[in-house]
Amino acid sequence: MTTTPVRTSPLAAVRRAVSWHRRKLAVLAAVIAVLAAVNAASPAPPATTAVVTATHALAGGHTVTAEDVRLTDMPDGVLPEQVLGSLEEVIGRTLAAPATAGQMITATDVVSPRMMLGDASTVVAPLRLSDAQVAGLLAVGDEVDVVAADPRNEGRTTVVAERARVVAIPSRAAGSSGPLGMGGGQSSSSGQLVLIAVAPAAAKQLATAASTSQLSIMWRS
């Protein structure tokens, strides 16, 4: 017995093809709708601002170079007050306190020695005072003498810097650690960091006295 094949009309074939493509388009449309819904529900990325950050750990009193800082995009919600957004605002200035790698640099983290001193023969030197009460009485602009007391020599005192001018007093939190050893023979993490303007020779005397003596100050009237 011979079976006669059923012939499909051209119109029916077209209808099946259109129906098949419609199903594909419907699935594609559903996928697109799901993706659109997911994107709409996802929060927008936070707005960012390019700010100055330290490329590596920096010591207080260090003069910032182009290799020390870079611009980094940071979320606006975490930006501290007075954060700097231009490298030119930082390069060539002096750090008032140690900075960690990646730390954002603010206007209070740097000082401009030449602007503040007006004398190219004067340098900025770090001084770490162990007496918190004395340090708490200091103010920027004070003129002081720095005195070194050597505990190994019956407490003998020597004036190691005369008419030094206080140019910056970093916060205790910012100045509580760092590689500088200006601590009167104590650990560099001890005492209040103060930046003072002195002659280059006095700065060397300060560095020498800090390794063996306790440093204090006397106010000039």
Fill in the keyword field for this structure.
24% helix; Type Iii Antifreeze Protein Isoform Hplc 12; 221 residues; alpha+beta; rod-shaped; single chain
Structure description:
This protein is α+β, with helices and mostly antiparallel strands. It has two domains: 45-111, Antifreeze-like/N-acetylneuraminic acid synthase C-terminal domain (Type Iii Antifreeze Protein Isoform Hplc 12); 112-221. It is 24% helix and 27% strand. The protein has four helices and nine strands, in the order H-E-E-E-E-H-E-H-E-E-E-H-E. The strands form three sheets. A five-stranded antiparallel beta sheet has the order 5-8-7-6-9. It starts with 9 loop residues before the first helix and ends with a strand. The model is unreliable at 172-189 (pLDDT under 50).
* Number of spatially distinct domains: 2
Sketch the major β-sheet. 5 strands, antiparallel
- What's the end-to-end separation, in Å? 129 Å
The structural class is alpha+beta
Indicate the low-confidence ranges by residue numbers: 172-189
Helix content: 10-25%
Q: How many helices in DSSP terms? A: 4
Task: Tell the overall outline.
Answer: rod-shaped
Strand content: 25-35%
Instruction: Provide the succession of SSEs.
Output: HEEEEHEHEEEHE
Report mean pLDDT, rounded to a whole number.
76
Main sheet: strand order? 5-8-7-6-9
What's the total count of β strands?
A: 9
Radius of gyration: 34 Å
